[in-house]
Amino acid sequence: MPARQVLRLAVQALPVLAAEPLYVLVDTAVVGRLGAVPLAGLAVAGVLFAQVTTALNFLSYGTTARSARLHGAGRRPEAVGEGVQATWVALAVGLLVLGVGQLVARPVANALGDGGAVADAAVGWLRIAPFGAPLILVTLAGNGWMRGVQDTARPLRYVLAGNGLSAVLCPVLVHGLGWGLEGSAVANVAAQVVVAGLFLVALGREKKAHPEVSLLPRLPLIRAQLSMGRDLILRTAGFQICFLSATAVAARFGASAVAAHQVVLQLWNFQALVLDAVAIAAQALVGAALGGGGAEHAKGVAAQVIRYGLILGVVFAVVFAALYPVLPGLFTGDAATLDTIPEAWWFFVALQPVAGVVFAIDGVLLGAGDAAFLRTTTLLAAVAGFLPLIWISLVAGWGLVGIWTGLSLFMLIRFVAVGLRTRSGRWAVPGAVLGPASDPQAG
Questions:
Q1: pTM for the full model?
Q2: Assuming Cys at both sites, which of 107, 176, 267, 407 could form a disulfide with 172, CB separation 3.0 to 4.6 Å?
Q3: Neighbours of 437 (CB within 10 A)
Q4: What is the pLDDT of residues 36-73, one digit of tens each?
């Protein structure tokens, strides 16, 4: 497997992964000029909405796994058909999110905000932004099937077009027309209309090129996708509970502790984007190899991608270690925060090679459709490693050292579990279709 194949898929996937965080940065900068209350309202509402959409990323990762196998078997119309069914799921779930969002906007904003001006600002945003939920989920489904057929160029163009529009609209609506925080939500929805529309047009073009592609919902395929989606939702929930708990515990050690944790966590999220791009390449290539019947080829792809992940992790470790004297100071000038950052920093640096391998193997196993195993091991690592240690650290007063020791244990448990799974080869079940006959859990 040429390294350039992995590089091409990863490099094109990375800007798509980074588009949403970059949009949030632009949005934050624009809204921040309105004052503290609107910015706080955006923070409350944005975090809530992001948690919901992140929990539904099975529409991307699950669809990639299923489409990639069919693509590898030379059955492109059926691979695209998986995208059609994922799009129907996206529309149905997105409309449900929209309806529930309207009902719970006020009580949730009151619970997360101050019950006063900040909550009022958050509610205004939350009344508008959920109209984009079906569109965001259509985009996730579109990314999924296009990655499955190893087309990462079009999603890149689509997402850049939408985010470019939002970057222009946001300041115009927020400040130019005086819509305030609500203008930010409108700009967000407008961008999502463009991106989702482009993915829907792409499905229409596939139908024109391959008339056998059905645009009608097919319940057996939808049920199969939802079954895999259940495992991926639970896996994502494990991550979210861990990181939300870590922030909650850090906050109880004081402002400097939570600020230091936030700085290091944002850097962790940055490197996770790069490692996720490699994992996406692994998903597409491993799924295609297994779909073409090449279990040994899939194992070879896995070994190579894992090496790339390890190399990337080592490079990150060296870079972040070298930048320690200057990088934290770019995020904060507060002396107490800077004094606290080292408690987390060297855990963060030491974990880079481990993270490089774990993210790469996650991509391999996701590409193989081994979602149930990833669900189980992630929840086990959370319950047996991360969560007990960070809550004990609260009682014992261990501060960020305890929190990041918990994160290290979480990563090491996952490292051992996914490493043994990969070494066993039980995940490498060939076949064009994921199902009982090709379920890695059956082996």
A1: 0.83
A2: 176
A3: 9
A4: 678 777 777 776 777 777 788 888 988 998 999 999 99
